[in-house]
Amino acid sequence: MLFNYTNRFSIVTFAGSALIKLINMAKIVITNIDNKVISTNEKSNTVLKILHENFIDWMHACGGKGRCTTCKMIVIEGMENLGHLTVHEKRFMEMDALKENERLTCQCILEKGVVTIKVPETSKLPHIQYSD
Ligand code: FES
What we know:
Elements: H1 2-24, E1 26-30, E2 36-40, H2 47-53, E3 72-77, H3 87-94, E4 102-104, E5 114-118
Bound molecules: FE2/S2 (inorganic) cluster.
GO molecular function: 2 iron, 2 sulfur cluster binding; electron transfer activity; metal ion binding
Keywords: 2Fe-2S, Iron, Iron-sulfur, Metal-binding
Cofactor: [2Fe-2S] cluster
């Protein structure tokens, strides 16, 4: 009887932690890649790393060092769910190379919730079929 109770408790605990993970998942929606949805539990990774881990090919000419802006994304909704602007992003904004609705995927962190993004025309890769 005690064994069964322990097992049930473990199952409930496991289900509870799985539910909490599911609720805490953050999501990226890419409108011009057929509204592709990517879910992640990893809140300390950059958007670029999350995209790559989910096999989304995304331009990143400087290798994610914050030096080029080729990795930029247009944020349609959910800007408040991203981490603060980094030094590199602020520099590019001052140079007018990054607009207020754009972020560098190699620099910004998705902290929570949903962010809806789009690949800018200048960062589209030739081998990918975009839906706009
Ligand atoms: S890859 Fe160059 S700035 Fe992000």
